[in-house]
Design a protein that fits this description.
With about 375 residues, this protein is mainly α. The protein has two domains: about 290 residues, Fic-like fold; about 70 residues, Arc Repressor Mutant, subunit A. The strands form two sheets. A three-stranded antiparallel β-sheet has the order 3-5-4. Strands 1-2 form a two-stranded antiparallel sheet. Helix 2 runs parallel beside helix 12. The two termini are about 35 Å apart.
Length: about 375
């Protein structure tokens, strides 16, 4: 459904060609009463799904387990959208042991950079003196996101100073040309003001609108997609929809990537905010439902495995202690276990052996030295 224009085109130069760059209007989006009425049911469904996820997070005794795993799963999928080829086991192994497994080092660094960036952002939001959601916070996230990887030569932590384009073989046939560089700082400032102002739109719609606005501004030379998806999680916390980072849309956006781009283009070309919000709310509902189910399934699996371990004749205190930290550290090595349990190598070895005998831990690969072990059933459910 066509609505009011969501911005304007202005002439600018990119790559030696004259092109039409799109400059979005400031938020909030303009929606008619009919469009708002059409969103009533999907909005109710999305809110209900978020409510269930919030309740699941409150009922689970060890929420840190799931936050740890969900953040890394999101980091993996968000980076995968941009072309990385890493596995969750390799990411967790790389974090704990520095071993790359079957994945390339650059791919693993991109994923772990995402983890560092989003953890930094949430720490800042939770800190009394931390940065609020702002251009400064996004700059700092971008700096961490691009550190030491393929985009490190693309001004990490800095707003772009040149015109960019998306798609096509050259600026003249690009799929989309974002605003000129001299407009970016002001547009980001307007977005920041919107995030910290009052609005009649329901918060979940404001999250969706802010995401589109960020992606349209395209403020950095690289990493905008990952930062834009990260912004969704931060805004869910900022507007008190979720107090823990459990909802991430990368699974949904990856599964419907072409539709996602069509919906963004629809907002820019036709002002079709209704189409975008309908798509976004569907994604929120599906993702929140999946996250709620996954959290419960993981918790039940841990409970069953705990009973199995406690019933084993060979169980030791160290084996129990190791098991209790596995959900937050589902890939371990001997040095890691020795450090986590603050114990000796023989004691750590015995704990690992017991968890292998009870089919809780399994060895990754067939190394003679520096062996790595994973909590296989947990990781299978997570992925």
């Amino acid at each position: 459904m066509k609505s009011k224009a969501s911005g304007k085109y202005i002439k600018t130069t990119a790559g030696g060609e004259m092109v039409q760059a799109f400059v979005p209007n400031t938020l909030p989006p303009q929606l008619t009463a009919k469009e708002l009425a059409a969103l009533k049911e999907p909005l109710r469904n999305a809110d209900a799904a978020i409510g269930k996820l919030r309740l699941a997070g409150e009922m689970i005794p060890s929420l840190d387990w799931f936050v740890y795993s969900f953040v890394r799963k999101e980091a993996l999928l968000s980076s995968e959208i941009e072309g990385t080829q890493a596995t969750l086991t390799d990411v967790l192994s790389y974090e704990q042991t520095g071993q790359t497994g079957s994945s390339g080092l650059e791919d693993l660094e991109e994923v772990t950079n995402y983890v560092r960036a989003i953890n930094y952002a949430f720490d800042e939001q939770k800190s009394k003196n931390g940065l609020p959601i702002s251009a400064r916070l996004l700059d700092q996230c971008h700096l961490r996101l691009m550190q030491g990887v393929r985009g490190e030569n693309k001004q990490p932590g800095e707003i772009r100073r040149s015109q960019v384009w998306i798609g096509g073989t050259r600026p003249g046939n690009a799929a989309f040309v974002p605003p000129p560089a001299d407009k970016v700082r002001g547009l980001l400032g307007d977005l920041e003001s919107y995030i910290h102002s009052n609005d009649d739109l329901p918060p979940i719609l404001r999250v969706g609108a802010a995401h589109v606005q960020f992606e349209t501004i395209h403020p950095y030379l690289d990493g905008n997609g990952r930062l834009g998806r990260m912004l969704i999680a931060l805004l869910l916390d900022h507007w008190n929809l979720l107090s823990s980072p459990l909802l991430y849309l990368s699974v949904f956006l990856k599964a419907h990537q072409s539709v996602y781009y069509e919906m963004l283009d629809g907002v820019r070309a036709e002002g079709d905010w209704l189409g975008w919000f309908s798509f976004f709310l569907e994604g929120v509902e599906q993702t929140a439902d999946d996250a709620s189910k996954t959290a419960c399934i993981l918790y039940n699996q841990v409970s069953r495995d705990r009973k199995t371990l406690l019933a084993a004749d060979s169980v030791t205190v160290s084996a129990i202690q190791l098991f209790e930290i596995l959900p937050k550290t589902p890939v371990v090595s001997m040095p890691v276990v020795t450090k986590l349990l603050d114990t000796t190598k023989p004691t750590a070895t015995k704990a690992i052996e017991i968890l292998q005998q009870t089919d809780i831990l399994s060895e990754v690969g067939s190394r003679k030295r520096d062996r790595i072990y994973k909590y296989e059933r947990y990781l299978e459910l997570l992925t």
